[in-house]
Amino acid sequence: MAEIVIFSDINASLGHSRYAGAYRIASELREKGFDVQVIDFFASFDLSTIVSLLETHVDRSTLFVGFSATIWTKYKSDEELYQDYMRNDRSIPNIIIDGMTPVFPHPEDQVKHIFSTIHKKNPKTKIVVGGFKATNYKTSDVDYWILGQGEKSIVALANHLKHGTSLKALETDKGKLITDKMYPYSKFSQSKIVWHENDFLFPGENVPIEFARGCIYKCSFCAFNLNGKKFGDYTKLKRTFQEELITNYENFGLTEYMIVDDTLIDSRQKFEFLYETLSELPFNITFSAYSRLEPLLSNPDIIPLMRDIGLRSVEFGIESMNKKTGQYIGKLGDRNKIADGLNLLKSIWKDDVYMAAGYIIGLPFETKQSMRETFDWLYSNNNPLDGIQMTKFWMERPPFLPAELGDRYDLESAGFNLTPRGWVYENVSKIHNNPEYYGFTQGVVESKWKNINMTQDEAMDLENEFYTNPNARQKHSASTFVLYNRMRNIGYAHHEIGKLYHDDNDFLKEAFRRRANLKQEYLNKLL
Ligand code: B12
Ligand code: SF4
Prior knowledge:
The chain is α/β, with parallel strands linked by helices.
């Protein structure tokens, strides 16, 4: 039984890893004295298992059940997902993107059943949704939607429900909204994820950790509320990060991490800070991360040092190998510089660090021809990448609240911006704000985008063309940032991971078997 239950998951991908958001929120609440049970694998459990979990963990003392709605996708049984993978006719990005869901993984009738089970156990228990998908507000009967960084909001809500303290919330027809402008969180630099014995970590588990939040860049296709921050903003104090790593080591023997920053290495300055912080530890850690390519290429001396401080898998958002596109999106773009740079990295790192690159089809001024030139380079045997992610451009269409709501509530102070379509909480990208400048003729309002060189459907066709081509097997690699730690968590060694490809049915069978075992072991501890 717990005062607060939080459901979380990152499903649909092979292997296993946990989402930082749920555990950061749990750490904050536990520090303030609340008793919290996080329940992982939520989007991978069927309804009857969820009902049993609720029967076990919700009682008269439960203040709320929270849902950490960020990276989960639609629920599929293990068998359905296995069949999807075994068909080998779709790329992993497609399996995951097809599974995207506005808020909840399970169908509406099942979500209703989950809510009614909670209320049968305790009619006063509130339903709370936080995480990235909370801005979709697309489920009825949710009591509170927590938008943005949730640390302060959730403690205010928990205190309100337990002690009757006052609470700032916007009442809308979608439920009550609480935002991080109403409850700003200013202590990120001293924050930690503090793992608890009832998180039931697996021995030696690879866990997520934050070094910094947000990004100093502002690429034109990218839309995060913390983009364009200054160096040092939302960065942990050296002491805090070290204490977090040492506590994890002493309490649980943890040494392997996924650093979930948007961009771990964005500058020499940040590298030096990370280097100093990790070098002073009395033990070594290993980690995977997202990084910009440019700081490594303009400071080649840091390339071997990244390996020495523990980097094992890295993903660069290359996005495009077209110079003009690079200029318009805020990335390198130069085909030769990128190829030479990646070759240099590979020659230093060899197989000690797996190196993957993400590409986007359909960015400003990218033509089909330049995209195919990129494909050809990726198909060639001498490209140094261990992993490739190729996805069509996704024009974000953030949810809007009706303009009239601004007459009743101070939405501006709550962090919303008034746009021609209504009030929007998230930042929108530069492309979304000024599509004409970037060559887009439709897509902000319409369901599909179009620019002067490509349509969304043509981008989709190119993606399929790439994934159905037998060359560039790296697109099936399990060594990418998304999968590396998930593979470690199902027992594959570093040197094995570079040889795992998900077009290999024997590997798929074994990976599903190992994940099912972990899930069952975890469930046995919770029930
Ligand atoms: C790290 C990361 C990943 C990692 C996650 C690994 C791991 N083990 O954690 C990997 C690489 C696996 C990944 C994969 C994907 N990701 Co991702 N990822 C991120 C990233 C960069 C950081 C997320 C994170 O952990 N941050 C640290 C935590 C502590 O911060 P936070 O998430 O902001 O959490 C705060 C709030 O959300 C809130 N909160 C969270 N949970 C809860 C719960 C409650 C109850 C409350 C009250 C509050 C609350 O409070 C938290 C603390 O302030 C975000 C971008 C971003 N900056 O958010 C994208 C992001 C979450 N990913 C996204 C996407 C699209 C994907 C993929 C689908 C990409 C793809 N095409 O494959 C896959 C899907 C994964 C899958 N199902 O297999 C989108 C989600 C969009 C959506 N939900 O519709 C994001 C937002 C990026 C984007 N804008 O495109 N991702
Ligand atoms: S694409 Fe990457 S580097 Fe660019 S703003 Fe977004 S997170 Fe930062």
